[in-house]
Design goal:
Elements: H1 9-17, E1 26-27, H2 28-35, H3 41-48, E2 60-61, H4 78-86, H5 98-101, H6 115-119
Parallel strand pairs: 1-2
This protein binds a DNA duplex (13 and 13 nucleotides) through helix 2, helix 3 and strand 2.
DNA sequence: AACTTGACGAGGG
DNA sequence: CCCCTCGCCAAGT
């Protein structure tokens, strides 16, 4: 089945991102896994760069727990500042603890033993 | 149709 | 911790 049929692939990404609670984050790769077929971290990133809509884009970060907004038109610190304002804590290297702040959509919570292996590194 | 570019990620050195 | 390589896939030239 192709999720991209009814709604565009962009809409599917936004739909999930809009569900991320305040103070929580998801990674590009995790979104790709949740979206399934055809999606990769790369394409999710591509989709997110055009999300000037009502999506909390700041809650999507890379798998290392950092904000990778390296070559954007927006200030480098903006994303981290927005997240910190929501309660996400970053260390001196600009990294946050995914084990603490990463959010999982319904049905995608990691099981007890395989906790960290799947969605995080 | 071929080639290049990314708001990526895992693996290796 | 940093850097590089490769795989990935949509978009723009």
């Amino acid at each position: 089945m192709n999720i991209v049929n009814d709604r565009t692939y962009r809409e599917c990404v936004y739909e999930i991102v809009r569900q991320i609670p305040v103070g929580k984050v998801m990674t590009y790769g995790q979104l790709a896994i949740v979206l399934g077929e055809g999606y990769t971290a790369r394409t999710v990133g591509y989709v997110m760069h055009g999300s000037d809509e009502d999506v909390p884009w700041q809650r999507v970060i890379n798998s290392q727990g950092k904000c990778s907004t390296g070559r954007l038109t927006i200030p480098l610190n903006l994303q981290q500042e927005l997240l910190e304002a929501e309660g996400v804590v970053f260390n001196s290297s600009g990294k946050c603890d995914l084990a603490k702040f990463q959010w999982f959509p319904d049905g995608f919570e990691p099981k007890e033993d395989e906790q960290v292996s799947l969605f995080q590194q």
